[in-house]
Amino acid sequence: MVSHRSLTQIFTAPLVIAIVSTVGLISALVGDGWWDAVSWAGLGLPVLLYVHFIWRRQPN
Amino acid sequence: MLLLCITGLPLIFHEQIDDLLHSQVKPADVPPGTPPANLDRLLGSALEQASGKVPHFLIWDRDDPSAMFVSVGPTIDADPTNNLLIRMDTHTGAYLDAPDVTGRFTYIMLKLHTDMFAGQSGKLFLGLMGILFCVAIISGIVVYAPSMRKLRFGAYRAQRTRVVRWLDVHNLAGILLVAWTLVVGFTGVINTWADLVLKMWQFGQLAEMTAQYKDRPVPSKLTSLNAAVEVATHAVPGMTPSFVAFPGTLFSSKSHYAVFLHGDTPLTSRLLKPALIDAETGKLTDTRDMPWYVTTLFVSQPLHFGDYGGMPLKIVWALLDILTIFILVTGVYLWMRRRRAGVSQERAIANAASLDNPALSS
After folding, report:
1. Burial letters for B62-85: b for 16+ Cβ neighbours within 10 Å, e otherwise?
2. Residue A42 lies in a domain
3. Can you give the C-alpha Rg of chain A in angstroms?
4. DSSP 8-state symbol, B344
5. In whole angstroms, what is the distance from residue A35 CA to residue B40 CA?
6. pLDDT of B46 above 80
7. Residues 15-54 of A with CB under 8 A from B
8. Is the keyword Membrane assigned to this protein (chain A) (predicted)?
9. What would the pLDDT profile of B227-276 be if each residue is shown by its tens digit?
10. Which residue among A1, A21, A52 sits closest to B180, beta carbon to beta carbon?
11. Cβ atoms of residues B93 and B38 within 8 Å
């Protein structure tokens, strides 16, 4: 168990993810091809992280 | 909100669902480079299929360059939302079909999603719900901090009781999706204002552009539609026509064809630019970029629909929507549980946290 965490500690990861998703939201608007791929990755990241965190802790 | 998320899910794939559920007449196969049919001829054969009706709009199909639509209503000032859409072949100018879409699954979902069959007031109500959704997200960010004081990022306490597990799911999915839910929520709110934005444009820029025509009578005979579109595409080089509004409709004056053109990048293909063609002389009256409030609406549409990055983006959009449903369901559960037990969420967390720490629980 982690002891009390500061606001910076709590919000660093969410902030990074929010920035990555925002880049993902915008990039497909800017162009096609690679820009689309950046968008899929940027917005796919939160979904992957969700699956990762939920399954990681299940022992069986 | 749950209704919006659930009805929104099939709407992400509305084209695929329509293709699957409803067969439609295929346009003729033509070799690449085939020139489009003359629009006056195309319009003529469309109107043969709808006697007594008048054309409101001529619309190019965004997804299928070999099809276009003629939107017809009983009179020129009739409500266009009840119009019949006649599908025409772009290259041959032949009639394809005119399906009644109002019984379709996707149409019902769309109505439930946009106005719950309650017209403008339904739209504004859902807009208000959207605003509350955004407020809830922001307050969620605020209470995320005390919830996570003793937990690592991404903590999911799988061995704990359901309330703790669901709280973790709620916190985790909520914080991971914060940017997406805020953007989709807020752009959805902007979309509910579309009719107001249209009215503002009508009385603002459109009125300005057509000021000198204000007192002129309605032209008795309209000039060639085909020529009007040609004049417009020459006046705005590099852009392609998206739709034409006939004189007397919401999107034009009484004396003009309004040809709306779009660019060719994902972003500029959403930004329409009107070119007004005098329907009596066939000459260009004016063409201007849309004011900022219309541009905002145009940009907010793809960001709400998720239809701007191919099929993979649609799939990601659907997954994010499903996670949002999780957030809503767990959120309602936690709220009801708190009401029933009179125990605050914070206390539940504190108790759960102390169980993790033997030193505190003894």
Report:
1. eeeebbbbbbbbeeeeeebeebbe
2. yes
3. 15
4. -
5. 39
6. yes
7. 17-19, 21-22, 25, 28-32, 35-36, 39-40, 43-44, 46-47, 49-50, 52-54
8. yes
9. 999 999 999 999 999 999 999 998 999 999 999 999 988 889 999 999 99
10. A21
11. yes
> Does A4 fall in a domain?
no
From the CA of B291, how many Å to the nearest CA of chain A?
20
Yes or no: say if B266 and A28 are a contact pair by the CB < 8 Å rule.
yes
Lateral strand order in the sheet of B273-278: B95-97, B84-89, B67-73, B54-60, B240-245, B256-262, B273-278, B284-287
Distance CA B306, CA B321 (A): 11
Condensed to tens digits (0 to 9), the pLDDT of residues B142-168 reads 999 998 988 889 889 888 899 999 999
The parent domain of residue A48 ranges over 9-56
Q: In whole angstroms, give the CA distance from residue B143 to residue B136.
A: 10
Residue B227 CA to residue B242 CA, distance in Å, equals 16
**Does a structural domain hold residue A14?**
yes
Q: What is the pLDDT of residues B269-313, one digit of tens each?
A: 999 999 999 999 999 999 999 999 999 999 999 999 999 999 999
Note whether residue A52 is domain-resident: yes
Q: How many domains does chain A have?
A: 1
